[in-house]
Amino acid sequence: MPRWPRWPRWPRWLPALLLMAALAPPAPAQTQDPPKKETAKAAIPLNTFFKGQTASQYLAAEQLIGAKVTNKDGQTIGTISDLIVGSGDKIDGVILSVGGVLGVSDKKIGVRLGALKLSRADGKLTVSLPSVSKEMLGAVPAYEKAGASLKK
Fold it and tell me: Which pTM was predicted?
């Protein structure tokens, strides 16, 4: 009697898998949302928002914060690290980081905005404190923050 070839053994879970695939519901077809009707645009109040930056404006984070401050001799005497905002939400001055190396052991002093000379050349902002020398900055006391009365 001739021997029939032996069929490969199928895993026991294969018939269950085939049955589940056959009985699975079809995937729902993707439908497009109907075109939306144009809604009325919200009224934008006047004198509230800026559309963009003008040639006479600059952003403090890009050009003022981190700017090197020089004296009348062109020596770098510090770096602007923050702005001092006073009553009426107007900028009263800047925090000038002096001394130290890469922000280590530096001293933060407050400088009135009127004492700084801001000039622009070739699109770059230059900040100077012409009436001050490095020796004077050593004698100026560190800027003291107000107590915890002002919270964010």
Answer: 0.62
Q: Which residues of 58-88 are buried (b: 16+ CB within 10 A; e: fewer)?
A: eeeeebbeebebbbeeeeebbbbbbeeeeee
The DSSP letter of residue 104 is B
Count, residues in the chain:
152
40 occurs within a structural domain: no
Residue 151 has pLDDT above 80, yes or no: no
Give 4-46 pLDDT, tens digit per residue: 556 566 566 667 777 777 777 777 766 676 666 666 678 888 8
Give yes or no for a contact between 78 and 70, defined as CB atoms under 8 angstroms apart: no
Centroid of chain to Cα 118: 24
In-domain check, residue 152:
no
Rounded Cα distance, 27 and 25, in Å? 6
Nearest CA-CA partner of 145 in 108, 102, 92: 108
In the chain the first and final C-alpha atoms are separated, in Å, by 95
Structural domain containing residue 104: 61-139
